[in-house]
Amino acid sequence: MAMLAMERLMGESAGAEVRAPEAEPNDYSDHLSKLVGYFEEAEDTGREARLRSERCRDYYNNNQLSAQEIAILKKRGQPPIYVNYIQRKVDTICGIERRSRTDPKAFPRNPDDEDTSNAATDALRYVADQNKFNAVRSEVYNDILVEGYGGADVVVEEMPNGDQMIKVKRVPWDRLVIDPHSRQLDFSDANYKGIVIWMDAEEARRKWPNYADSINDTLSSTSASETFDDRPKYGTWCDNRRTRVRVVQMHYREGDDWFLCTYTKCGYLEPPEKSPYLDKFGRPTSSLKIRSAYVNRENERYGHVEGLIPLQDEINKRRSKSLHLLSQRQTFGKKLALADTAKAKVELAKPDGHVELQDGAKFGEDFGVIPTGDMANGQIELMQQALAEMNATGANAAMQGKDERSQSGVALQTRIQAGAVELEPLADGLREWTQEVFEAMWMRVRQFWTAEKWIRVTDDDRNVRFVGLNKQVTLGDKLAQLAPQEQQAMVQQLGLSGPYDPRLREVVDVENDVSGLDVDIVIEEGPDLASLQSEQFEILAGLAKNGVPIPPKALIQASAIKPDTKRSILEEMEKGPQIPPDMQKQLEELQQRAQQLEQENQQLKGDRELEARKLDIEEMKVLGTQQPPAQPQGQEPMTPKDLADVELKHAQAEKARADAEKVRIETITQANQLGEQGISTETDEATGAPKPSALDTIAAAMAAQAQALAELAQAQMRPRTATLSNGKTITVQ
């Protein structure tokens, strides 16, 4: 099979052809007026919606009081006090997004593409890391929440060294040109969308030297919109030497294809052409990915902040009103009761103020103070209701960690889930936008990374891997992967002359070929609500502490450890406890001692049989037997010296028995010690009791072996008694 595959690969390599795309006419000079009209339509139609979006950003940035309101407060002598609840809400939602970041995963559509799909996953994560996509996504999400929409441009830029680098560039909301007739949240029904770019006129002339006239003519025109104006805005004292020009990069649809053009009001800077970026069907597509939070029936986009502004305004105004009522007094009186009414008002506002009445004037009749405490209390009560409504909207106090009333885990989790459900449409929209961006990344990888490319993957905390995309495999590489016998057969079949045969350097295969790979990209994420998980872990840990047999694996699964670290811990637990080198050495010494003890007992057994045989011979000699039993070859009759040797053997056997008993005790002691250190981490499913570990099993086996050897030695040392025919009894110890 390997040889057939090799022949097929070499045949495909030899017959492959690359066809250049057919050239198409590129004359779209009549598009300029239409493109200028697109921009002006977006500028004029969406003016009111953009003004509301700007107001939302002002409220987020602590600019919540108008100049007229500040002037009134200053006239009253009140400070412009406000508490920015909107910023807290938005930052809490953005914080949840930051804690719920996950990496993309590419799944193969064909069973044979599993290995290549892993390389696709590595490529996506590499591109995301190179662009710091997590930070880009957070910034876009902030735009979606505040102004109502945001996006990023997924493009390819050629580096000075020739590399094709995939870039994901965030486009601020006030630089996005959107089709006012689009109704979908993802702008999939838009006929055009673009980017407004401001740059110095000199820079524009250097970048597009052939279109200097278009730039100069545009400088004389004026901008009709403040939203698309330059930042920062120039006032009267502007620097006329630094003239800047507005450039529009427009993505627009013509039929089924998307076109790309860069222009000013008075001419092209980059003439229209089909988009260089392709979708999964090979059609030109837009590289600009935009998402909005909400859209009303007038197709106007708005974000989460839009619904919080009325509550914020009510809180600010009622706070100022109640402060005014508490610090001022309403009075009544006759004209002659006071010499200076304005001065009396000032004195009444002071904690130690003093008011003098004219002669004959009576307090309560000619002059008096109207109580307004009920009005102040009413304003404070209404402000408290507005605060309660603000806290219950969107990111609630529990999600912000500022609700002191809900301390139990269940109550806290209930409030967190209530806020999370309300925010889930926004989170779901962000997930869809993220998936669109990753799919665009993958399309750029397939289209532009056609040469061999190595990427570094750091998804493991402990290891750094290098993955080769479009890795060219030569015939020599293929042969090196075969078994020696298959190598020889292939060399003979192909007629290779030796290790320097030029055919060995021919490319016969491409590993991790991403050019034609179709994958499904999945983004799994959600709000990081760790309170319930922590509470469950505490419950399980408390049960285990009280003696309930909770498996250790269940505790690890319920913990809030990072998924990669958790998986590594569970894999180590599957392997079982590892014996340290010093313990392993002790176990080997115990095993060697046990084997030596067994050999000694075997020798004692042989000596015991020899002694018994000699006793039989002595008995026959005493009885005068003429034909003694057959003796082993080379064995002489027993003499007094032999009897002395028997006694010596008896003493040695006694010593061996004592040594066996000592070894048995030492073995059991050391095995118990090792067993205590090798604590089992698994439990029996039926009884719930801990299973014996590997050390427990070894120690028990060695203890049983030592016990058996000791009992064998003791049995062999039992005295043997023989009674002769003359009545004499001989006992061998």
Please tag this protein with its features.
three-stranded antiparallel β-sheet, five-stranded antiparallel β-sheet, 20 strands, 21 helices, 733 residues, alpha+beta
The fraction of residues assigned to DSSP E strands is 5-15%
* Anisotropy-based shape: flat
Instruction: Give the strand order, joined by hyphens, for the main sheet.
Output: 4-5-6-7-8
Low-confidence stretches: 1-25, 234-240, 526-531, 625-636, 675-681, 722-726
Tell me the span between the first and last alpha carbons: 74 Å
Number of strands: 20
Rg over CA atoms, rounded to whole Å, is 45 Å
Task: Estimate the helix proportion, in percent.
Answer: 40-55%
Mean pLDDT: 74
What is the count of DSSP helices, taking H or I runs of 4+ residues?
Answer: 21
Report on the biggest sheet: 5 strands, antiparallel
Structural class: alpha+beta
Provide a short characterization of the protein structure.
With 733 residues, this protein is of the alpha+beta class. The chain is built from 21 helices and 20 strands.
Per-chain topology:
Elements: H1 2-15, H2 32-45, H3 47-60, H4 67-76, H5 85-99, E1 105-108, H6 114-130, H7 133-146, E2 149-158, E3 164-171, E4 176-178, E5 192-200, H8 201-207, H9 212-219, E6 244-254, E7 257-264, E8 267-274, E9 288-292, E10 294-295, E11 301-302, H10 309-327, E12 330-333, H11 341-349, E13 367-370, H12 373-392, H13 409-448, E14 453-457, E15 465-469, E16 471-474, H14 475-480, H15 484-494, E17 507-511, E18 519-522, H16 530-545, H17 552-558, H18 563-575, H19 581-623, H20 640-677, H21 694-716, E19 720-723, E20 729-732
Helix pairs in contact: 5-7, 6-13, 10-12, 19-20, 19-21, 20-21
